[in-house]
């Protein structure tokens, strides 16, 4: 019942489907269901929910690529938007946009938006970022948390769950 007021406030069709799946998970009494999933879902935009779904599908299916690459930040950006420009340094992102050409400003703004979404999803505990220092280089890797996996499964319809399981 505590989920109903949160679900009732959603007007986006895709998010409504996620709320319906979450309510179904709660009513079934799934062992992996947590009441906090409702608060997590209420903090997501439709764009973020779609991004999480695309990421989950990408990492839950076998890839020809090296699985270590799928944990790299550039993989997150590419899942978000395959056309995104990822070669933006923090220095360039902090640079005065007035002094750059219009196309580069658009690329940087798009990258900043994607970074904001990635950081917010990490804040929600859906995935985790780990950084390790190797000499002068810092390696950053992302992976789904147990909370994130259970959350995604709870807000996915049975049809989506079956298609993900059949591809494994």
Name a few traits of the molecule:
single chain, 168 residues, mainly alpha, two-stranded antiparallel sheet, 9 helices, 2 strands, disordered C terminus
Task: Give the tally of β-strands.
Answer: 2
- The H/E string reads HHHHHHHEEHH
Q: If helices are DSSP runs of H or I spanning 4 or more residues, what is the number of helices?
A: 9
Strand content: 5-15%
Category from helices, strands and their pairing = mainly alpha
- Order of the strands making up the biggest sheet: 1-2
- How far apart the termini lie comes to 34 Å
User: What gyration radius follows from the Cα positions, in whole Å?
Assistant: 18 Å
Q: How many domain units?
A: 1
Report the biggest beta sheet as strand number plus sense, adding barrel if it closes. 2 strands, antiparallel
Shape estimate: globular
| Mean pLDDT figure | 79
Percent in helix: 55-70%
Spans of 5+ residues with little confidence (pLDDT < 50)? 161-168
Describe this structure in words.
By secondary structure, the protein is mostly helical. The protein has one domain. It is about 60% helix and about 10% strand. The chain has 9 helices and 2 strands; from the N terminus they run αααααααββαα. The chain has helices spanning about 5-10, 15-30, 35-40, 45-60, 75-80, 90-95, 100-125, 145-155, 160-165, and strands at about 125-135, 135-145. A two-stranded antiparallel ribbon has the order 1-2. β1 and β2 (about 135-145) form a beta hairpin. Mean pLDDT is about 80; it is low at about 160-168.
């Amino acid at each position: 019942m505590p989920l109903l007021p949160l679900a009732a406030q959603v007007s986006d069709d895709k998010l409504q489907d996620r709320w319906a799946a979450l309510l179904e998970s709660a009513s079934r009494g799934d062992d992996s269901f947590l009441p906090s999933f409702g608060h997590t879902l209420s903090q997501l935009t439709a764009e973020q929910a779609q991004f999480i779904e695309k990421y989950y599908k990408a990492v839950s299916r076998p890839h020809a690529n090296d699985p270590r690459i799928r944990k790299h930040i550039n993989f997150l950006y590419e899942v978000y938007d395959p056309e995104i420009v990822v070669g933006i340094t923090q220095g360039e992102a902090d640079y005065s946009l007035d002094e750059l050409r219009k196309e580069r400003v658009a690329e940087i703004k798009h990258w900043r938006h994607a970074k904001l979404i990635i950081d917010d999803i990490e804040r929600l505990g859906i995935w985790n970022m780990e950084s390790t220092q190797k000499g002068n280089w810092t390696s950053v890797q992302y992976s789904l948390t147990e909370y994130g996996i259970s959350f995604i499964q709870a807000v996915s319809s049975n049809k989506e769950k079956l298609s993900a399981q059949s591809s494994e």
